[in-house]
Amino acid sequence: MAIIVDKVQKRQDIALSCKALVLENGMKNLTIAQLAKTAGVGKGTIYDYFKNKEDLIFEIVYFLMQKHSEKLEKEIVLAVSTKDKIKAFARFFYDENEYELRGFYKEFMSIALSSPNEEMLEFNAQCSTRYQLWFGEIIQDGIDKNEIIPHARKLLKGLFAFAGGMFLDGSATNNLDTLEQDLNEFIDAIFILIEVK
After folding, report:
1. Are 88 and 169 part of one and the same domain?
2. Of 10, 35, 50, which residue constitutes the final position of a domain?
3. Half-sphere exposure of 131 (CA within 13 A, CB side)
4. Which residues are registered as beta bridge partners of 148?
5. Cβ(22)–Cβ(30) under 8 Å?
6. Which of 18, 43, 114, 184 is the least buried, fewest Cβ under 10 Å from its Cβ?
7. How far is residue 2's CA from residue 9's CA, in Å, rounded to a whole number?
């Protein structure tokens, strides 16, 4: 009897088995042969499941983003105030528990900026839209609860982009030591302006 292979699961298993190797070496320094050896499959099998190394990164990022979203959703439910919920979003950029995802986020962004393909651009746009909508719901909930002023809606994209920008800038200058403090101070300062007095 023939063995039925779940191709979606197999693709994910191969990609996830390469996580540590990719984080340690970076995508540019890896070969398909190294990825295949780490995954315990032949080079041909890698190409059966992935178009290229970037596609493998895409699979890891997709998986880690799903796990991150599930965790973030739980944190947001437990957060009491709108400010705490926004700080939960910002924690991604400095929380030690998100180290892997941040590493892959940087690899993904490097690929997306230097040699984007349709699928990656679409994925990035979908993630951005999804998180901005989610962020917008938090802001609207804060407005509805009379925690923050209605004008706070206009800060949505700026707040959302600011944290990512600080992280990328800190990564590019190897200066992430004060990122947690900087992000929290920024959010606190914004809330001084938008909280209902």
Report:
1. yes
2. 50
3. 23
4. 195
5. yes
6. 114
7. 18
In terms of domains, do 40 and 99 share one?
Answer: no
Q: Could you report the per-residue pLDDT of 43-88, keeping only the tens digit for each? A: 999 999 999 888 888 889 889 989 989 999 999 999 999 999 999 9
Distance separating alpha carbons of residues 192 and 28, to the nearest angstrom: 44
**Phi-psi sector, 71: left (phi>0), alpha (psi -120 to 50), beta:** alpha
User: HSE-up of 57 (CA within 13 Å, CB side)?
Assistant: 27
Report which residue type is found at 119: E
Looking at residue 83, its amino acid is K
Residues 158 and 111 sit within 8 Å (Cβ to Cβ): no
Q: Please report, for the domain that includes residue 64, its CATH number.
A: 1.10.357.10
Measure the CA angle with vertex 60, ends 55 and 62; round to 5°: 90
- What's the sign of the alpha-carbon dihedral 53, 58, 61, 62? negative
- Given a cut of 90, whether residue 11 has pLDDT beyond it is yes
Tell me the one-letter amino acid at 39.
Answer: A
Instruction: Give the mean pLDDT of 137-154.
Output: 94
Q: Output phi, psi for 195, to 5 deg.
A: -70, 145
